[in-house]
Amino acid sequence: MPQTRSKHLHVSIAILSRAPVPGQTKTRLIPALGAEGAADLHRRFLHATVRTALQANLGLVTLWCTPDTSHPEFAACAALGPLTLRQQAEGDLGQRMLATISGPTLIIGTDCPALTPAHLQQAANALSENDAVLIPAEDGGYVLIGLRQPEPAIFTDINWGTALVLASTRQRLRDIGYSWRELPTLWDVDEPADLTRLALSHPELISTESSGQ
């Protein structure tokens, strides 16, 4: 049920990421970048996302890793600032996200270079006045969800990876009587067509190796 609200929430940030192993991450970008290039882009996204989370100066930042925390790039991220490494839970994406929540938490992935520290701060402020907060993605999903407490219904029986994720999540929030706020829609990088936009907006994330040039 909806929670009593406070203006002074201590909000944590949970980042979910795969290890940047060639052939196992950013697979939809492999036709454009090759396996090594796609993994290198994921590595760049991972580091950029960790920096963004740390620069938001909110609460604890945890990097939830899969298949485990042993990849050297995860250790490199931990060297960027106060960051905790944890292994992701078993199950689908919803179960893995749910497992990150023990109190007010903002959950993000590493696919949205447009996400800034200011977005995270705005989301934390919104969560202080609502039961949930969302940043929609242009593809019908979301790039951030924030909750004040774990609520399994929000993550159960969702068709993850489809254009129905955001609409289904909104309906779940309505069904359980949650209030929520949505911040302006952002874009993420999932398909080769997204790389042109990425090169224009964030050229520092495109290396000559990963762009095939």
UniProtKB/TrEMBL annotation:
One of the Pfam families matching this protein, by short name: DUF2064
Name of the molecule in the record: TIGR04282 family arsenosugar biosynthesis glycosyltransferase
Organism: Candidatus Dechloromonas phosphorivorans
